[in-house]
TrEMBL record:
Protein name, entry field: YqiA/YcfP family alpha/beta fold hydrolase
UniProt keyword Hydrolase, yes or no: yes
Short name of one Pfam family: UPF0227
Molecular function GO terms recorded: hydrolase activity
Transmembrane segments: none
InterPro entries found in the cross-reference section: AB_hydrolase_fold, UPF0227/Esterase_YqiA
C-alpha cells in the first residue's frame, strides 16, 4: 500500500492523490488529511503505518519532510516531490491564520509548530531505505538546489521549469511504479 502525505495547507483529496489512485488503484493509495500540528501529524502517521501494510511513502513538500522522517524510522522506501528540507524556516512566514486550498476553511499555524518541526529535524537522519526525489527548478516556494544537495546520495530527478505543485506528476507515474515495483 502507498501512503501519500500532502503538503502544508493541502489535503488528502488533491490532484496528486487522484492521479495516484487512478494509476495504482483506489484501494492501493491511502491519502488522509493530516493534522495541522506537526507532532499530531507524526503520531497520526505512525498509527496509520502500524494499522496498514504500507510499503511506499509518497510525500509532497511538507509531506516530503514527514516522509523522510518516517522512511528513516520505519525503513520504508519513499518518493519525495519537491520536498521541504527545512520547513521550520520556510513555513515561518505562515504563522497565523491560513486557508486550506481544498476546502477554503481557515486554520491556525502556530509558532510552536515551527519548534516541533525543528525537533523532528534534529532527531531525523537520512534513511537507509531507497528514495526517489522529484524536483522542479521552477519551484517558486522552495529552492530545489537545497533538496538536491541534501538528497544527493539518492536517486534525484531534476526537471527544468515546473512549479511547487509539480503539476505534471502524471508524466512520472510509470517511473514511480517501477520504483515501487522494485521494492
Amino acid at each position: 500500500m502507498i501512503l501519500y502525505l500532502h503538503g502544508f495547507a493541502s489535503c488528502g483529496d488533491s490532484t496528486k492523490t487522484r492521479l495516484l489512485k487512478a494509476h495504482f488503484g483506489e484501494a492501493e493509495v491511502l491519502s488522509p488529511d493530516l493534522p495541522v500540528e506537526p507532532d499530531e501529524a507524526m503520531a497520526f502517521l505512525r498509527r496509520l503505518i502500524g494499522q496498514h501494510d504500507v510499503s511506499l511513502l509518497i510525500g509532497s513538500s511538507l509531506g516530503g519532510f514527514y516522509a523522510t522522517a518516517l522512511s528513516s524510522e520505519y525503513a520504508l522506501d519513499a518518493v519525495l516531490i519537491n520536498p521541504s528540507v527545512h520547513p521550520f524556516r520556510t513555513l515561518a512566514p505562515y504563522v497565523g491564520t491560513n486557508t486550506f486550498w481544498c476546502s477554503g476553511e481557515s486554520f491556525e499555524w502556530e509558532s510552536d509548530y515551527l519548534l516541533q518541526l525543528a525537533r523532528i529535524a534534529e532527531r531525523m537522519r537520512l534513511p537507509d531505505a531507497r528514495l526517489l526525489v522529484l524536483l522542479q527548478t521552477g519551484d517558486e516556494l522552495l529552492d530545489y538546489t537545497v533538496a538536491e544537495a541534501v538528497y544527493g546520495d539518492y536517486e534525484v530527478i531534476v526537471e527544468a521549469g515546473g512549479n511547487h505543485r509539480f503539476e505534471n506528476l502524471g508524466e512520472y507515474l510509470e517511473r514511480i511504479e517501477v520504483f515501487y515495483g522494485d521494492a
